[in-house]
Amino acid sequence: MKNQKVLENIHQLQYPERGQNYVFNGYMKYLIECLGEKEEYDYYFFSFISGDCVAQVFGQNKDRWHPSLSQSRFDYDLIKRVFDSIGYSFAFVSPDELKAEPEKYKQMIMAYIDKGLPVIGKGFNNCWDNKAQMTDEVSCIVGYTDNGRTFFRLPEEATNLMPINLEDEYSYRLVFVGDKTAAPSLADVYKNTFFNIPNLLTLPPLNGVSFGIQAFIDWANAVVSDFYDIAESEFDCWRVYTIYVCNLATNLFSKQFIDRTFDLTPELAYIKPDFDEIYADMEKTYVKLKEQGGEFNITYETLQNKDKRKAIAETIAMFGHHFDNLYKLVLQEKNYG
Predict the structure, then answer these.
(1) Residue 128: strand pairing partners
(2) Mean pLDDT of the region 256-282
(3) In sequence order, what are the residues at sequence separation of 6 or more whose Cβ sits closer than 8 angstroms to the Cβ of residue 180?
(4) Is 152 exposed, middle or buried (0-12, 13-18, 19+ CB in 10 A)?
(5) Which residues are 144's β-sheet partners?
(6) Residue 332: which H helix or E strand, with range?
(7) Is the dihedral of CA 303, 306, 312, 318 positive or negative?
(8) pLDDT tens digit string along 122-169?
(9) Most CB within 10 Å of its CB: which of 48, 61, 153, 325?
(10) 3-class DSSP state of 313
């Protein structure tokens, strides 16, 4: 064991201009690089398998960020779904396990970094303008120094390493990649994930966060309620509203990568026209949202205008209807195809 080490292949892991807005999938792609695995296991592959590019999210807690499904449901089931798809076992370490045996897991992290492998984790917070932000981020540990007293994590859109320790007040989850197992074919992975869409769109709420169809219902209801009656001095547009627009826009953009399912499984090609029509309807509704001033360009004044809020809420609710159509389309094929 060395006194310090940082992985050599450090680079930016997420590119928003390419529609890459979900950090977990960037870290999985990085892990794949370090394992020397298939190039087909790219960011967009993981975005689909994780469900990030399928299920909208909406959070009731205005103090926290809720950017994606993988951020809000970073649990054993998510990790198993993703690692099963690439044919690897894994170890999932809960906050209680880490706090019970911190030295054991510090040694494990250092051992992984020594052999060139990052460790994915959840629970890392940021600090901007000397104010702690409750970001509870998914991140990637890529180095250590001073025999593990300090570790380094890699932010998603930069290469500046951020020092952390694992004995502060935050609750960390850790994921260690395990042994290689039999990997399913890409066709099977995409087909199984496609048929998992109804489950992703109807996930139950968790810790004040709703998903899929329910997320649009709750978001629309929030817009017409007093949820956005916030003092302008306390208004953080990205955290309380625009992050959900980003979620929506990213998922509409990601259709082209879900379409890989039809290329790999020709037996499903006959439903592609119906699939395309649903997404075309979503794009039209998104244009309407933009015209109403309810997209990325929304202003504080708009969110304080009840008439404008009502119109925007009705448009947001329409997305719930579109995704309900998608739910029914895939479920019918799954049950009777």
Answers:
(1) 131
(2) 96
(3) 87, 88
(4) buried
(5) 5, 151
(6) helix 306-336
(7) positive
(8) 988 765 444 445 568 899 999 999 988 899 999 877 888 989 888 777
(9) 48
(10) helix
